[in-house]
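Field reference: "sequence" (input) and "structure" (output). Example, Aminopeptidase M1-D-like:
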Amino acid sequence: MARHGCSLFVVLVALAAASAAPAPQPLPLHPASSELPLAELAAQRGFVLPPRKPLAEVAVDGTVTGAQGFPFGMADPQPPQRARGPRQREHGGTRAKRAADDVYDETRLPTSVVPTRYTVVMAPNLASGEFFGSTDIYLNVLEATSRIVLHGSPDIAFSQVQIFKYSAEQNRFDENGEARFVPLGRYDDADRLVVDLERQLVAGQHYLLRFPLFGSRLRSDLKGFYLSTYMDHDRHTHFLATTQFEPTAARYAFPCFDEPSLKARFKILIEHDRSLSAKSNMPEISRNNISLAIARTEFDETLPMSTYLLAWVVSDLENIAADAAGNFRTWGRSSLLSPRSAYLANTVGPKALQLLEELTGIPYALPKVDQFAIPDFEAGAMENWGLVTFKESYLLETEDTSIRIREFIATTVCHELGHQWTGNLVTLDWWSNTWLNEGFATYFENVICDKIFPEWNLMDKFVTDNVHAAIANDVLPGQVAMSSPVTTTGAIADKFDHISYKKGGSVLRMFEHILGTTTFKKAINRYLSENAFGSGSPDLLFRAMNAEAALSGPSLPPGADFATMARSWTEQAGVPVVTVTRNAERGTATITQEQFLYGTPDDEQAMLWYVPIPEVVTASTGDWTKTAPARWLTPDAPTIADLEIAASANEWIAVNPQQTGYYLVNYDPANWRLLQQALKAERSAAAWKAGIQALAFLRDRLAITEAAQALRAFVRQITADAFDAVGFEAERSPSVEDTAKDEERYLRRLVASQACYGGNEKCIRGAEAAVQTAQHDYSRAPADTRDAAFCYAVQNSARTSARILEMYMSAKVSTEKAQYAAALACTRGYGSLESLLDSILNGQGYPRPTATDLRVLINAILSQWDNHKFMLAYFQKRSYEIESFAGSGFFFSLLTALIKDARSEDELVEIDRFMAKTYPDPAMAAKVEQLLDATRKGLEWNRRHYAEVSQWLFAATDTGPVSPPTAPTLRPTEGPPTRPPPRTTTTITTTTVATTTAKAKGAAGRATGVATILLPSLLAVLLLRIMDLNA
């Protein structure tokens, strides 16, 4: 592990150590007369654990997601999501200082006491699923109080609570009267512990709050301290216990002040089965056998850190060291862990640490890194300081790992190690600013991994994976800003979204190009150095950037400092669209900004930004590297008029090269026509990722209309050359060390599924051959094109479809059965699907089919757009049986999906009539009407653009009439809606044709200069010209 001197850093460590700890030394962990394991101590005292809670049903079983943009068989161009998933968004206020007895406000803890040090003993019993614990918390008192409020779970039972006061004269802690728990009412915040004290705590003094014994069950929801299992080759079940505390789950394991700014030092001890090992954030300093069956492992004390970053793992997992020193290790179960599977993790990790040290100018703070592949892990990965945990498939590479996941493993390692600086060393002050953690980590994952694997072209992909994805979410109605207030635990969970991750990373990348890379690095170093082992905030970050900007003199907006400019991006939601209108005769252009909106906002209040405008790129200069701002659009001056452009009327111009600025660009029709010619020979995977996203938009709106076949023909045309270049399958699987063909693999994965969707005969033959070679075994097919192979082989071969049905019926493992169900859903032999659904509803087969079988199969069927009409007809035929078999919750979820996926008014009328006749209940009728109204609003694009787009497709592919077809979404009593005059004859479809005709003549390559500007242009055109919603 790289180590190098840094005098400032050493001083900061010393200062943090001096300020974080109280003068006294910790008390003994147990009374001096007792060295019993906690479990034995609990047994002696007759300690009773809370009753075990029933396991909750897996949510996905009762949810129907409906048609998917990228269902089974269609390669998703986006990487897996790090964000934790959408919820019903909640909002709340900011922190305010409160009286010490205001304990039932869920917002924040009172500020009268702060922790400085913990001693935490945990004793899990993996066989019984229980654990016992003991915690000492050392406190500094800021305000006199007779009440302590901290976090704890109602699922934890406590024996007692004690309070001690430090005596400077005796250099020890003495009892300080009685302490007792205050019972909480049913409507109070259940995650609080309230301790009332007989004697008031004195401001400025040191105290110790002791919880000598507590216990609970190891959780089953993958939060807090939870139990995980795996099965070995001999089908023996192995147990392990691990933690997931972010954002608010440390309280589920032990009593603590569970807020990110309340940092302290932690001394961790684990009592565990002697046959297992225990690991935590810091290195092990001792392991002693304290009984015939139990060992106690003690770890070095941590540096000051937040509770959510604590971690420990008790397991029989094995490890492979990345180097001889053994300071960097990757852990996993023996059946998965090998030098090959750990190659990426152990190669990327140490290199990433070194590069992060160089970028930040600050060495890694801890003496080791352990990376654990956990069998049951919900978060994807978690940056616990010194002990990083991962979902197994996101850390260990196997023969089944696709190129998409291979890249994701590497970038995830870089992401989590980036957190060791931004998140761990300097931690967000409160969850309102989650982007300070996740935005920086998103930035690091791409910048650092791009240096390790430049052949992957990750900074090209950054635009589609992050900037485009962020913008698509940021323009949604009701979206919140990067910095937005949160109070409840639910609202905190909401902050782990595309705005914090992807917009945060995109805006930080923009700041880099505003300041320049050298100044940006200096600003990061200043921010981290000045706040090491403490909390960060947007104001502190902007102060550091402002200071470095003043020294280096980058171009900032007139009359504004860096912080003023930056807040226009972090404190308001939304995206600006910059419109460039050329005057060819005068050789000038007008550039103006406005907020991109889905229609007109309710409050009529549009927002403006400080928008950096680099030098305009022209066809003759072709210099895409000048990304520093040459001029600004500001809230006070949102337009630049008559800007001189050194380009002839026949040359294209481009604004926002590499889309370093977080905004959309729209051009006049003439410039669009010039730009679209520039991508005719583009063959980068990044350009295809953007094009496929645009195609998905069209497919989702045309898939069940009469234009569907024309769209397939169009896709077949534009993918033909690219598919010929890469084929369906590589000649052989490359070695894990060989990355030279990775970008070609990525392009093949994207193009093959599109070519097969379009009906490319070579692709379909390749799919059938791959399935035959794999002997219809899903796990043996090529990883990159496996889904496409099974989907399109089933769709085009009755024999293959019949064989996959046999595999489905004989599958014993639920995941395997779900894979074959997904493949069967690709069939167009609806008779077989109907028979399979009937057999499940009729309870036929062995073992007897379950409600889960029905839910999984219906979800698979509905994920394919082409199956919508079949499933709607089947629903009307057997709705009673579906509700009876799978439950009313699933029934209504299925109805919701069918309504949401409707693409014509006729279908909506059909559903309305069926429900009114079959389910006349007024409450149900009201729900159905609400769903129907929401879907009708979503059909606006079809009403406005279907005729024009379908006409273009029919003409371009020679598959149908050239005259405009009738739009399928008009109500029977209505005439065609009034359309505004079209802006231009160059619609998105023509732009998409040019942009996505990425004719790969050989292996995939880096995006060309023009591609770097047209990648964002694809999204701009998609939003501004097809939707035409702000016309």
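The mean pLDDT is 85.
The chain has five domains: 107-316, 318-404, 427-571, 576-679, 697-711+771-957.
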